[in-house]
Specification:
The strands form 3 sheets. This protein has a 7-stranded parallel β-sheet, with helices on one face. Strands 1-2 form a two-stranded antiparallel ribbon. It has a two-stranded antiparallel sheet with strand order 6-7. α4 (134-146) packs across α5 (160-169) and α5 runs parallel beside α7. It has helices at 33-45, 61-69, 101-115, 134-146, 160-169, 185-188, 191-198, 237-257, 261-270, 285-293, 301-310, 323-326; strands at residues 3-5, 12-14, 18-19, 50-52, 78-83, 85-88, 91-97, 120-125, 150-156, 174-178, 201-205. The chain contains 12 helices and 11 strands. The two termini are 34 Å apart. By secondary structure, it is α/β, with parallel strands linked by helices. The longest helix has 21 residues, at 237-257.
């Protein structure tokens, strides 16, 4: 497995990580824990070191799953989790943000217990709380670093301005935001440039467009009844059909190269800079192995230009989240 440094002063991790959310939440009812754990173990065998979870996935059940899977294997991984989106088992559809020091101290203890570890390698603020100055939030996180409970700090879906302010309080190792061929917002809002300027690693989540860029989704009927994509703007109505036309073009280019559309899409993300470490999510070993193969796929300049022409910024039809969820994003 190739490696990359997460930020100019950060740790060396695998060139791609593994997003674990879908093993427990959002995409389908129930889960195959046996296959999920087998996928996690296979990821370690393939050299993946960066595993990504959050306390709201489930909520809580995804961290618990990783805690079980990593017993006796904790030293092999660089474990990232997140706090800051408030979601309770009693009201799983309701969202809020909390970045207060009191909440952080409570949240980290819960995550440590569920993960079965005495420290978190990378602790992200999942969403910025507009009610709490970022300086206050990062100050509380810095105390966790001093206490040895957290090694590195991160932000998720934060603006370039917030990143600058946070970085002045304590070094921010990574910023995680959605980034892929069909979500190129970080290029336009200055986040990618700010990360490169400050020496902050950038961790693209959903680099395969929530599965759309794999080319496997042909109809909204492909989703399970409770799959949240059924109500996601990009996956509904005319937007689905328009986006499918773009993905079909990617699939044609992939076929000409003799690779999977997912591999082409991941290779494009990896080609955007050495400080990027994407975390494609999967809960099956066969897709994990396909994703890992993308690390060794070098795209030509012509191929990169062709992909940019197919998927320029703003090409995807529909918002990436509902209005309510987008309200939590800076």
């Amino acid at each position: 497995m190739k490696t990359r440094r997460l930020g100019s002063q950060g740790p060396v991790v695998s060139a791609i990580g593994l997003g674990c959310m879908g093993m427990s939440d959002f995409y389908t009812t129930g889960s195959d824990e046996q296959e999920s754990i087998a996928t996690l173990h296979r990821a370690l065998e393939l050299g993946i070191t960066l595993l990504d979870t959050a306390d709201i996935y489930g909520p809580h059940t995804n961290e618990e799953l990783l805690g079980r899977a990593l017993k006796g294997k904790r030293e092999q991984v660089f474990l990232a989790t997140k706090f800051g989106i408030v979601r309770t088992p009693e009201q799983p559809q309701v969202r809020g943000a909390n970045g207060s020091p009191e909440y952080i101290r409570q949240a980290v203890e819960g995550s440590l217990k569920r993960l079965g570890t005495d420290h978190i390698d990378l602790y992200y603020q999942h969403r910025v709380d507009p009610k709490v100055p970022i300086e206050e939030t990062v100050g509380a996180l810095a105390e966790l670093v001093k206490a040895g409970k957290v090694r590195y700090l991160g932000l998720s879906e934060a603006s370039a301005e917030t990143l600058e302010r946070a970085h002045q309080v304590h070094p921010i190792t990574a910023l995680q935001s959605e980034y892929s061929l069909w979500t190129r917002d970080p290029e336009e809002n200055g986040v990618l440039a700010a990360c490169e300027r400050l020496g902050v690693g950038f961790v693209p989540y959903s680099p395969l467009g929530r599965g759309f860029l794999t080319g496997a989704l042909k109809s909204p009927d492909d989703f399970a009844a409770d799959d949240y994509r059924r109500s996601s703007p990009r996956f509904t109505g005319e937007n689905f059909a328009k986006n499918l036309q773009l993905v079909d073009k990617v699939a044609e280019l992939a076929a000409a190269r003799g690779v999977r559309p997912s591999q082409l899409a991941l290779a494009w993300v990896l080609a955007q800079g050495e400080h990027l470490v994407p975390i494609p999510g999967t809960k099956q070993r066969k897709y994990l192995e396909e994703n890992v193969a993308a690390v060794d796929l070098a795209l030509t300049r012509a191929e990169l230009l062709e992909l940019d022409a197919i998927f320029p910024a703003g090409a995807a039809a529909g918002g990436r989240y509902s209005k309510e969820v987008m309200a939590l994003i800076q």
